[in-house]
Specification:
By secondary structure, the protein is an alpha/beta fold. The protein has helices spanning about 15-25, 35-45, 55-60, 90-100, 105-115, 130-135, 150-160, 170-185, 205-230, and strands spanning about 5-10, 30, 65-70, 75-80, 80-85, 125-130, 140-145, 200. It is built from nine helices and eight strands. The longest helix has 24 residues, at about 205-230. Bound molecules: 2'-deoxycytidine-5'-monophosphate.
Length: about 230
């Protein structure tokens, strides 16, 4: 198994863009765990499973026909034969994903899938809320990426605008506040900084600076393991 870089943090801190870029530049696999919770929520809505029906959601989790496909420009996501790459990014799906992800049975049901995706020989950059604490507690590099709410909301608005979704900064601020509170306060695997994570605040620095900093940590980690082997 290659090395694991775990990137956790609140909504809109830039985890996806940063994780994608680090993965691309280091040849590691990108694992977007939020997309898995989004796909589950999307499937629940399609199959009329209630967001507070933990057992029904757990059953859906067991048979979730989810598949990632890497193309040159993006990672596509399929549910069965349907491509849902863009559909799962709609703001209402963020809210649904945050709701279904509260349940211990759902989280347990998705754990192996997340671990399997990160298992390859090239190593993985995995991002989410509980990667450094639960999914990969032994990750070699752990990052807790934050930014102030206004900066996060502005970034999210710009990202959604690129996808043709119009929404105001105020609406997103509100949505993120509710979601971050729910994600941080749930009993199982809440959003919390792992004790051994490096905290990076991206409010005042560019995403390129954050990416370079993380790649440097990856190199340090690889060099340290080479030195350990060769004495
Ligand atoms: O990262 P994202 O915005 O795509 O995540 C959507 C929701 O999924 C998030 O609000 C909470 C949930 N999630 C989670 O509980 N654990 C993860 N590792 C990733 C996402």
């Amino acid at each position: 198994m290659g090395i694991i870089v775990a990137i956790d943090g609140p909504a809109g801190a830039g985890k996806s863009s940063v994780a994608k870029a680090v993965a691309r530049q280091t040849g590691m696999t990108f694992v977007d765990t939020g997309a898995i919770y989004r796909a589950l929520a999307f499937s629940a809505r399609q199959n009329d499973v209630d967001f507070d029906d933990e057992k029904g959601l757990a059953q859906l989790t067991e048979n979730l026909p989810i598949r990632f496909q890497n193309t040159e420009n993006e990672q596509k996501l399929f549910l069965g034969d349907d491509e849902v790459t863009h559909a799962i990014r709609a703001p209402e799906v963020s809210e649904w994903a945050s709701k279904v992800s509260q349940y211990p049975l759902v989280r347990a049901g998705l754990l192996n899938l997340q671990r399997r995706l990160g298992e390859g020989p090239d190593g993985a950059v995995a991002e989410g809320r509980d990667i450094g604490t639960v999914v990969f507690p032994h990750a070699e590099v752990k990052i807790f990426l934050t930014a102030d709410p206004q900066a996060r909301a502005k970034r999210r608005v710009a990202q959604l605008a690129e996808k043709g979704i119009q929404i105001t900064v105020e609406e997103i601020l509100n949505e993120m506040k509710v979601r971050d509170e729910r994600d941080s306060q749930r009993a199982t695997a809440p959003l919390v900084k792992a004790d051994d994570a490096v905290e990076i605040d991206s409010t005042q620095v560019t995403m390129d600076q954050v990416i370079s900093q993380i790649i440097q940590l990856v190199h340090n980690c690889k060099n340290a393991s080479v030195e350990a082997v060769h004495g």
